[in-house]
Amino acid sequence: xxxxxxxxxxxxxxxxxxxxxxxxxxxxxxxxxxxxxxxxxxxxxxxxxxxxxxxxxxxxxxxxxxxxxxxxxxxxxxxxxxxxxxxxxxxxxxxxxxxxxxxxxxxxxxxxxxxxxxxxxxxxxxxxxxxxxxxxxxxxxxxxxxxxxxxxxxxxxxxxxxxxxxxxxxxxxxxxxxxxxxxxxxxxxxxxxxxxxxxxxxxxxxxxxxxxxxxxxxxxxxxxxxxxxxxxxxxxxxxxxxxxxxxxxxxxxxx
Length: 255
Prior knowledge:
By secondary structure, the chain is an alpha+beta fold. It has one domain. The chain has helices at 89-92, 113-116, 153-157, 232-253; strands at 35-41, 51-58, 71-77, 105-107, 133-134, 137-139, 142-144, 148-149, 161-162, 178-179, 191-194, 226-227. A four-stranded antiparallel sheet has the order 1-2-3-4, with no helix packed on it. The chain has a four-stranded mixed sheet with strand order 7-6-11-10, with no helix packed on it. The longest helix is centred in the last third of the chain and has 22 residues, at 232-253. It is globular and about 60 Å long.
């Protein structure tokens, strides 16, 4: 799975001579500033979703004395543009071409190359640390060894609901599934199985819902999830961690 999008969260760890921490034994280490997100609740600028997502990225060529001075806008987004459905290779295979028809999305044309190489489907905003590009990926029997551009910042956060009956990205199932790529002996990474680009399922991540409307689908018992107003930290991290802690507490109480 693509470790950058959380699908392999328990397997992720820093690699390198200066990184000593693991997921079970954290350690302090120096890091480099490359991305900074600013998310604003704004029903005036964004009457449909109620949110404006923006991302700053590090540009070594920008003027300034330190990393903060060299942070420039990568872009902003405030809606999913569900009316813009482009399945051309330039919209799917990174680095994608930013579609000028996206009226709820802006990408800085002066952004550094590394930052625009990780944009989402059709050029929807996604920073280099956000995981919109799934590498490798399967979608509609097509294998994407170089990656598939999928949900950007707003699309990912739009799946915030409880319980999480949809994944962060437009996968074909929840929990997401992986399968071996063709000639898997040449590629050790299993490919994340995605929904068909442009399909009804895929487009669930590219709507402009208000924060009170869940993405869905309903639970197996027929109950509707509770929308969490684009709060992915609560949906994907806080609630699961709380559930794990309560389960461990109950288990320890039985000893």
